[in-house]
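In practice, a research group might receive sequence data for several interacting partners and want a quick structural hypothesis before committing to experiments. The following worked case mirrors that situation: the sequences arrive first, and a predicted assembly follows.
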Amino acid sequence: MSWGVSEVGVRFGRVRALDGVSMDVADGQVTAVVGGDGSGKSTLLHVIVGLLDANVGEVRRPPPHQVGYSAAGSGIYPDLSVEENLLFSAAAYGLSPADARARAEPFLDRMDLTGARHRLGGQLSGGMRQKLGVVRAMLHRPALLVLDEPTTGIDPVSRADAWWLISLAAAEGAAVVLATTYVEEAQRAASVLLLENGRVLASGPPADIVEGLPGEVRSLSSRPPAGEAARSWRRGRSWRLWSPEREPSQVDEGEPVVPDLNDAVVVASLRRDLAEPSGAE
Amino acid sequence: MTVLARACAVSRSFGSFLAVDRVDLEVEQGEVVGLLGANGAGKTTVIRLLLGLLAPNLGEVALFGEPPSARTRRRLGYVPQGLGLYDDLTPAENLHFARSVFGTNIGGQDVVVADSRLTVGELPLGRQRQAAFTEALDHDPDLLVLDEPTSGVSPLAAARLWETIRDATDAGAGALVTTHNLEEAEQCDRLVVMAGGRVVAAGTVDHIVGRARSVVVDADEWTAAFAALQRAGIRAALVGTTLRIPSSTATVVRGALGGIGARLQEVPATLEERFLELVAPSAGGSDT
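A structural hypothesis for the assembly, expressed as tokens:
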């Protein structure tokens, strides 16, 4: 099966939180929703799992007991222990305590959470809490696993653990949707949806997004002229400059580079800002 | 080049816990140094030692060539992860307040923001971060200390924040950046990687990654390959529909895959893979 949304729109008063958003989420794959703070990522995930009704558009999701969801910040109960958090959630999905323990055990071992079994959720580090949130959401082997920023702010070691869990869920056949602000993580997804101000700037496999980047990206060792500021950005010690068309006569500075996903994502935002200067963040 | 901040064989313990163990670190004029490490690696303690908020038990710390003091602190610009701005004030009001408290740049130019009537709390995170940067740079500091400078913002907003950092270092300041985002780390000129209170690697990204290699597995069915590797105690990282196994060889991986159809390739490791190998060997390739 394939889950997802078609032409979804959500309004909060006069604010268009989502506008014409479509996304397909395939089984056994990770789909990343990428965007900055306020781009509409959480709203989209809320619509997919059914926490929020869209004003317009179509949502395709499995029955509620086949959906797993971890909210931004993990949603772990601070006053329950690690084990109680897991058992409570498992019971809500009809898993017996014995089944839940057997399923969770290997994950907790790998996450170094076994020793923390009786620690309260509120006393866990951010990384532990996020990992526990992912384990909890996948205990009942959901067909659709939706994770809201499961790796934001956690250290790279915990992030690698979280990705191991995410990969495991996909390997078991779940359709995984995760929100992230890191392009580095989008690069690891089979498919990416780039959101800004509630609209889709780009979507598809990372390689296709890069492939579809129009024009040319150059690397410059000195600051581009002021007139090109809106098409340039800083990367390490050098600058990047995007030109809409491959016309070497127009730009003779710097060296063309083979763009990566980060370039493609930045250019998508630049193009939107150039088209609608008022909407720039 | 002038060395702005220097920690020389610095150690610091809390009770019986050795938080920082003989750490060397330098930030020169014009460069951005990234300080990396897992939680508990000792990064925050190193920063506090450099800022003079903590005294070392052993070793020496120098800021601008002298021991840290109130005088050297005036030449610092610090942006904590929580930004340290007042949510109920506009960016301009925040700046006026900071100027009057610290006695710096009084009567200087106002912050230029697109909509100055909005309070910090009403601004999107990217603009909040930009406002915090503007405030930290207001007194032309010689050394910037930035904690997760672009966390949570869009890639374009992150690039704009990095432009601000680079403008300051191009003008002669130095910057020390702590980050969990290894993509951000690649923006730095040099990296210092900490684990267990010690420096386990230092240098450019290329130097740190060195000759470390990973195996890429392009299997007919990645899920079958993932499960087979899992059974063999090898932890694979999913990238699209391929798998990456750090700190291993094609021969070992081929053996673990048994008869599963797959194309294997040894490729240079990423900074993230090398980082995990350095700080948490068990989180990387093999369990054994």
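Before designing any experiment, note the following. Chain A has a mean pLDDT of 90. The two ends of chain A are 37 Å apart (CA to CA).
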